[in-house]
Amino acid sequence: MSDHERPEGIGEEEEAVFIVTDEDGTERELVPACTFDHDGSHYVVLIDRNDGEADGLILRVEQDGDEIVLENIEDDAEWDAVMKIYEEMLSDEA
């Protein structure tokens, strides 16, 4: 797991597990792999807890009062920039 900064509540104490239902209706248990910042926003990369080969999921982290809200990235330019950062992170680890 990366040492990048984490928003409050993600990765503290025991590992956070997010239950996500995919487009086929299958529930997946996702855990944070790393977090990073870009252009004033914070992002988390979630990977399947039970299938390390499955594609990860990148979401924008928003703070709503005391609640952490994970948002889909809808903007193409934001998505392209975030993917470039993530791909660079992966190549640095190799």
Write a brief caption for the model:
The protein has 94 residues and is of the alpha+beta class. It is 19% helix and 39% strand. The radius of gyration is 13 Å and the shape is globular.
Feature tags:
94 residues, 5 strands, five-stranded antiparallel sheet, alpha+beta
Commentary on this structure:
A hairpin with a 2-residue loop joins strand 4 and strand 5. The chain has a 5-stranded antiparallel β-sheet with strand order 1-2-3-4-5, with helices on one face. The chain has one domain. The chain starts with 17 loop residues before the first strand and ends with a helix. With 94 residues, it is of the alpha+beta class.
Q: What portion of residues is helical?
A: 10-25%
Could you tell me the strand content as a percent range?
A: 35-45%
Q: Cα distance, first to last residue?
A: 14 Å
Structural class of the helix and strand makeup?
alpha+beta
CA-atom Rg in angstroms: 13 Å
Order of helices and strands: EEEEEH
Q: Helical segment tally?
A: 1
**Number of DSSP strand runs:** 5
The biggest sheet amounts to: 5 strands, antiparallel
Unreliable stretches covering 5 or more consecutive residues:
1-6
What strand line-up does the widest sheet have? 1-2-3-4-5
